Amino acid sequence: MITTNLDRMDEKIKAFSKFGALEGGGITRLSLSEPALEARAEFRRRVLALGMTLESDDIGNIYATYPGTEEGLPRIVMGSHMDSVRNGGNYDGIYGVLSSLEVAETVITEGIKLRHPITVMVWTNEEGARFEPAMMSSGIVMNKWTKESMLAVAETGGTVTFGEALEASGWVGDEANRLNDRDYCAYFEPHIEQGPVLEEEGLDIGVVEGVVGMVNYDIILEGVSSHAGTTPQSYRKDALRAASKIILDLWDKLGAIAGDLVFTTGEITCRPNIHTVVPNYVKFSLDARHQDMDVIAKVVDVIKNLPDEVYGCRLSYEEHWGRNTIQFDGRLIGYVEGAVKDLGYSYRHMYSGAGHDAQYVSELLPAAMIFIPSKDGLSHTVVEYSSPEQTWHGANVLLNALIEADRNF
Ligand SMILES: [Zn+2]
To answer: Which CATH class is domain 213-323?
Structure first.
């Protein structure tokens, strides 16, 4: 089997860890910020040194391409994002870019003949940490929202708009360069798992089948606010007490639907939120995710069958938003699995619980993802870690899956 270079892969991770480095580890490399532009400049330097051609599109997505041996074939593209959340780690996103770069470097320096051109891609603003929403530019490419509305988005906690930051970055290119289904034929995105499963099970690789479907509800309890000292307990219509009961009931009921269903109440509003007043209004979020949409339908059933009244408080709910499960391309999943087996790595099939640019790309091109383990399952934190061997394994899988895709597409 052909493999990439372990030391070179590790050097890339360490080199890019400098851009936005925090004292004591980790990075803050918000989209189009100074450190993000330094990382882009380093990426440009490296791909040009490899003899790749560099293009960017009108939203600053970067495409570095090396030609194939057959004229006129579309490109196979691989990559991810280089921006991070505030106090993020050295692997989320950037691992996908650097493993793709390591694969391209291997192909070029080893003289591996591929029929298709290969492209290493960098998405602008995947995290949405500086400019909301997440997956902004893949969402523009896939018409999830308009470019105009996104250019007007101001940074969180500041005044600079995405459009202004983009203009100042020097990375605005041609709209015709956007990822499309004429010039490109397949998309791979390597990524860290961002969860504990691979490490817990002692596995090398996650063969990602898709991205889980989800629903997001707000549940509202309305009672009566009254004086904390003068209202006997039996007279109260306490919305927070009612919400507490419903949250705990939901844990029991949703937990019984499927062992691998994940659900979260992460946001709560309590009014009037004064320590001497019985709350009259509580709204809490419920996020539930599973790959089987029938399981999600059961979650919705549980919500719809919640009682209208709890401890004298009126209960109502609103669906906030949701998405169906995204299935990646069967052929590409097969190439990834074949590569894993040929390399002798241990693996499992899994779904991503988090969103990735690949989920939007999958509506345009055959797409697939490769996961490597995350230490302690942690991500979006400075302690995010995957070992040099783990990062190398993922790159090797990508290289061999790419070769197989090149043979068959
Ligand atoms: Zn990511």
So the answer is: alpha beta
